[in-house]
From TrEMBL:
Pfam families: Peptidase_C25. InterPro entries: Caspase-like_dom_sf, Dockerin_dom_sf, Gingipain, Gingipain_propep_sf. This is Gingipain domain-containing protein. It comes from Candidatus Methanophaga sp. ANME-1 ERB7. GO terms for molecular function: cysteine-type peptidase activity. It comes from the Archaea. Residues 7-189 form the Gingipain domain. GO terms for biological process: polysaccharide catabolic process; proteolysis.
Length: 634
């Protein structure tokens, strides 16, 4: 399966890229990482499909990225040469960028150092990966669709991934899971043409509304493998819901300009049927691309012809610029698993009805993005009819995001002979409503029921917010070997429970983490607090060094503001910071004594003041006559 994916992607992109393929299965285990290291320099795109985890792409782990000069022979670091590539990790958890928590089938917790960060540390510009376990079939099809349909020349990678996700969302529940688990890190503008170039200007084409369309579906192709026939339509998709037969289907997208709203799509002709028999098509078992043995049971499928989805379906996607995209999905391939017969239709014709309206929703906002439960949500709605007066049916509702469940109907009224501008400010009392994400939906229709315009605005009910209430490290000046006690208190100052991870990191002078402590925060209630205590052993620290200790809590896909404290190891008598005790330090101590100022490094006789005696003792230590031992930590 993984090998087939790599070969398919090579066919798609080889006209634009020089392709270097690496199949783990074809390389001895000891040579897989060296082969990867040798192949990646000077490549613009690095794509992986297989098993993975937060810290690995199969045999490639975060430990393989730095150089190892002590190895025999020395191992160089992974180097991308002159490029800053796009990296696409189509495998479980390979986009778990921060603090992955173990959930079945995972048996470990992640941390700050992960495979995505390893690529960024070497100069990658963009990383796309999954934050959870991920179905292999969907990873394969999404990867091919990304390169074949969406990431075109001069299209930004952010736009391509967004368009891919928008397209996949309506294709089934497992696709919705795929959409939500994949993230983009880095520069979403990667791949864009400069706005003044001919390539960029050529993309700004005017849209003409389409009232009918004829579609010729490419002939399907069959690939036998291990007694199973895999069927695909070039440029098409495959049904991948759990337990469903892997039937290919085909879709087309049509752009409509602002002010045009598609009302219906009617199939007027379907022809060119061809038949076949003897195919053995399997059902989908959503294998997980995680480093473990895992599979899900195949559900029973009723007999007869599949898919039982009708001839076609369509949906309309609203674009941020006011235009819309009509997606028509056709099911030309029909299969009877009882007889192995096939019916395939090549030709489709559709009539598309749409309205052109000067009526538009010009404003839809809420007064805040987040509300405590029970607060009143204020909504501002603005309408405009720049054309002739007409009757408009205006409705507004609050719905729960994800389920579409209507929480409240805000307004429903008919605007008689409406023209010009209008505004409304409905209010919603959220008392007794569960916290979560909601959206306001406003719809304008004419008296025939045709949609003239529709807009939505999302908000959150329930405030997720926490802060570090206190953060201390004692002692702040330590002798090597002392134990530094770190205390952190985290408070929930929001209105919903918080679950997350508290992180305390000790950073050296170069900013590298030398120690890290983690603690679970579980269902911390509003106004509640939780304390954490850790002991940092300073036995391995360097004389005269200082360390920055930071603390923060990761929760709800965000981080609290970090708290910081600096601790340092003192060399008694070293007042100028050169890590040596010299006569210059004695002179500084004498100046401190004259001014009545205090510096713990100068208080070498440990009487909690700096005097001429301290200066004399430092002078003796500089001459090698005595040794300054420091004071007991209190």
């Amino acid at each position: 399966m993984f090998t087939d994916f790599v070969n398919d992607v090579e066919k798609i992109i080889k006209k634009e890229f020089t392709v270097h393929k690496l199949h783990w299965s074809n390389v001895a285990a000891s040579q897989r990482v060296p082969q990867f290291r040798n192949n990646v320099p000077n490549n613009d795109v690095i794509c992986y499909q297989g098993h993975g985890g937060p810290d690995s792409w199969g045999p490639l782990s975060t430990m393989d990225f730095p150089e190892n000069p002590s190895a025999t022979p020395p191992i160089p670091q992974i180097n991308f040469g002159s490029t800053n590539p796009l990296v696409l990790g189509l495998a479980c958890l390979t986009g778990s960028y921060e603090d992955h928590t173990a959930n079945a089938p995972c048996v470990f917790d992640g941390g700050d150092d992960n495979i995505a960060e390893a690529f960024f540390d070497r100069g990658a510009a963009v990383y796309i990966g999954s934050t959870d376990v991920s179905p292999i079939w969907h990873n394969c099809e999404a990867g091919k669709a990304f390169f074949e349909k969406w990431w075109k020349p001069y299209t930004t990678v952010g736009r391509a991934l967004t368009d891919l996700k928008r397209d996949r969302w309506s294709h089934g529940t497992m696709w919705q899971f795929w959409v939500t688990e994949y993230n983009l890190y880095g520069d979403p503008k990667f791949g864009a043409a400069h706005p003044g170039t001919a390539a960029a200007l050529s993309q700004k084409t005017s849209l003409e509304p389409v009232a009918s369309i004829d579609v010729v579906v490419p002939d399907y192709e069959v690939t036998p493998r291990d007694g199973v026939d895999y069927v695909k339509i070039p440029g098409g998709d495959i049904l991948l819901e759990e337990g469903e037969y892997q039937i290919p289907y085909y879709s087309v997208s049509i752009e409509y300009p602002t002010g045009h709203k598609v009302q219906d799509v009617v199939l007027t002709d379907r022809s060119g049927m061809v038949t076949d028999t003897g195919l053995n098509i399997s059902t989908t078992t959503n294998l997980i691309a995680f480093l473990s043995n895992n599979s899900n049971p195949v559900s029973d499928v009723d007999g007869g012809w599949v898919p039982a989805r009708g001839d076609h379906r369509w949906e309309l996607l609203e674009n941020p610029d006011g235009t819309s995209t009509l997606v028509i999905m056709m099911y030309p391939f029909h299969y009877n698993p009882l007889t192995t017969d096939v019916r395939f239709y090549r030709n489709y014709s559709f009539d598309i009805s749409y309205t052109v309206s000067p009526v538009a929703i010009t404003t839809l906002t809420t007064d805040r993005n987040e509300y405590p439960q029970g607060d009143t949500v204020m909504v501002d709605i603005g309408l405009n009819n720049s054309g002739e007066p007409q009757d408009i049916v205006f409705s507004a509702s609050v719905e729960r995001y994800g389920s579409g469940e209507i929480a409240s109907g805000l307004l429903l009224r008919t605007l008689k002979e409406f023209t010009g501008l209008a505004s409304f400010s409905p209010q919603w009392n959220s008392s007794g409503v569960e916290p979560g994400y909601y959206f306001v939906e406003v719809t304008l229709k004419d008296t025939s029921g045709d949609v003239l315009d529709r807009k939505t605005e999302m908000f959150r009910l329930g405030i997720s917010s926490g802060e570090i209430a206190s953060f201390t490290a004692t002692p702040e000046c330590f002798d090597i070997g002392d134990e530094v006690e770190i205390e952190m208190v985290f408070e929930n100052n929001g209105t919903v429970n918080i679950t997350g991870t508290a992180v305390i990191r000790v950073l050296n002078s170069t900013g590298d983490a030398t120690e890290e402590f983690r603690h679970n925060v579980t269902n911390l209630t509003p106004s509640g607090s939780v304390s954490f205590s850790d002991i940092w052993d300073t036995s391995w620290t360097e004389a005269g060094s200082s360390y920055r200790i930071i603390g923060y809590v990761l929760y709800d896909s965000r981080s609290s503001d970090p708290a910081t404290v600096t601790v340092q190891n003192m060399i008694m008598g070293d007042l100028d910071g050169d890590s040596e005790v010299t006569t210059a330090d004695a002179a500084i101590a004498l100046e401190l004594a004259a001014r009545g100022e205090y510096d713990p490094s100068a208080d070498v006789d440990c009487d909690e003041q700096v005097t001429a005696l301290d200066s004399l003792m430092i002078l003796q230590a500089a001459a090698g006559n005595i040794e300054l031992e420091g004071c007991e930590s209190s």
